[in-house]
Amino acid sequence: MTSSHQYNSKYILALSFISALGGYLFGFDFAVISGALPFLKDKFNLNEYWEGFATGSLALGAIVGCIAAGKIADKKGRKPGLLIAASVFCISSLFMAFSPNRDLFIASRFAAGIGVGMASMLSPLYIGEIAPAHYRGRMVAINQLTIVLGILITNIVNYSLRNEGDDAWRWMFGLGAIPSLLFFIGVLWLPESPRWLSQMNKLEKAKIILERIGGTGFSNTTINEIQRSFQTVNKVKFSSVFEKKILPAVLIGIGLAVFQQFCGINVVFNYTSTIFKSIGASKDDQLLQTVFIGSVNLLFTLLAMALVDKIGRKPLMLLGAGGLTILYLFISYLLGAKSASVSWFLLTAIGIYALTLAPVTWVLISEIFPNKVRGTATSIAVLSLWAAYFILTFTFPALYSKLQEKTFYVYAVICFIGFLFVYKKIKETKGKTLEELETVFVQH
Question: Do 295 and 152 meet the contact criterion of CB atoms below 8 Å apart?
Answer without folding.
Answer: yes
